[in-house]
Design goal:
With 298 residues, the chain is α/β, with parallel strands linked by helices. It has helices at 11-14, 18-33, 35-41, 43-49, 70-79, 92-105, 141-150, 170-179, 203-212, 233-242, 244-253, 255-259, 261-273; strands at residues 60-64, 84-89, 110-114, 126-132, 152-163, 216-230, 276-278, 281-294. The protein contains 13 helices and eight strands. The model is unreliable at 4-8 (pLDDT under 50). Bound molecules: S-adenosylmethionine.
Length: 298
């Protein structure tokens, strides 16, 4: 795809940031292990959001932080053969999975590329820029969102989806509260993947950042949906201790966490047993902002 050659965003030339290294080295194997939660488990959330997206047949679309590529593939189906979708992500293993899934679909209007959205994106090429649960990890969110705006043609549209406050997302916050009964919070020097899932929860702050990044017509829509956090209690416990805010506390506590693993797992299992059970596993509530905006015409 021509677009893929349109930017210099090759880590061999720019060097990976500590956050990009963290995605590749620490998080990728965990995300692959829990892909059934992160992709299939969050599907209920996407199903609520996708029909509302301002994307049309024939659009050229950029999916930023596309992960395993499932949203890019869905978008490629929506825009049809006259349209085109490029998924960009900073993690090699996710892109390999995305390429493999794309090959299975037979779609010829989509492609994936490696890049850091905070460094550069192709400019002026797209009608619609999309990011599901990716912008929250930008260490410099204004720079990342400005690059996303510059990827749009004048008048082009963008939508990014981010988690709302921890209290509205017990599927992520409840386990952290349990783990903190046993372990200290991560210190200032903790290795992370960036600011984290709740960094864009505050409407006023995000609106201001988007204005500074140059967007206009900024709207926030709240979407609440149940998500699947594991096929059974042990799967959900393992997921929580590997990924997300509880996983960060556990990982950073190192040896102390391993010594107390039995107690922590038992307490988490008790808390998870109290959640709703569905045929395919354990269900909890989640809540996001679907934030849409425009690149000005001039
Ligand atoms: C929580 S995952 C969401 C993945 C996918 N959008 C989804 O909804 O399943 C966040 C994704 O953003 C990617 N990411 C984080 N920071 C990035 C950056 N600066 N540039 C490009 N991708 C980034 C990560 O590699 C990861 O795939």
């Amino acid at each position: 795809m021509a677009i893929q050659n349109a930017i210099t965003n090759n880590p061999a030339e720019t060097g990976d940031t500590e956050f990009v290294q963290f995605w590749n080295e620490v998080l990728a194997p965990k995300f692959i292990r829990f892909r059934h939660v992160l992709v299939d488990g969050l599907t209920r959330h996407s199903e609520a959001v996708f029909p509302r997206l301002p994307v049309r047949q024939g659009d050229r679309v950029l999916d930023v932080g596309c992960g395993f590529g499932d949203t890019a593939i869905k978008l490629a189906e929506i825009v049809g053969p006259e349209g085109e979708v490029v998924g960009i992500d900073c993690c090699d293993a996710f892109l390999a999975a995305a390429e493999a899934d794309l090959a299975q679909t037979g779609l010829t209007n989509a492609g994936f590329m490696r890049g850091d959205a905070e460094v550069a994106l192709p400019e002026g090429a797209f009608d619609f820029v999309f990011a599901r649960f990716g912008t929250m990890f930008f260490a410099n969110p204004v720079a990342g969102m400005r690059n996303m705006r510059k990827a749009l043609r004048p008048g082009g549209r963008m939508t990014h989806i981010v988690w709302r406050q921890p209290a509205d997302n017990p599927w992520l916050s409840m386990a952290k509260d349990v783990v903190l009964q046993f372990l200290p919070p991560p210190g200032d020097g903790a290795r992370t993947c960036g600011p984290g899932p709740f960094s864009m929860a505050d409407e006023e702050t995000v609106r201001k950042m988007m204005e500074i990044a140059g967007y206009t017509a900024i709207t926030f829509e709240r979407v609440d949906a149940p998500v699947l956090i594991g096929h059974n209690v042990q799967d959900a416990v393992d997921f929580q201790l590997a990924i997300g805010p509880a996983g960060e506390v556990f990982r950073e506590a190192g040896e102390m966490a391993e010594q107390r693993r039995g107690e922590i797992e038992a307490a988490l299992a008790d808390a998870i047993r109290q959640q709703t059970k569905a045929e395919d596993g354990i269900i909890m509530s989640s809540s996001s902002w679907v934030i849409s905006a425009r690149n000005p015409e001039t």
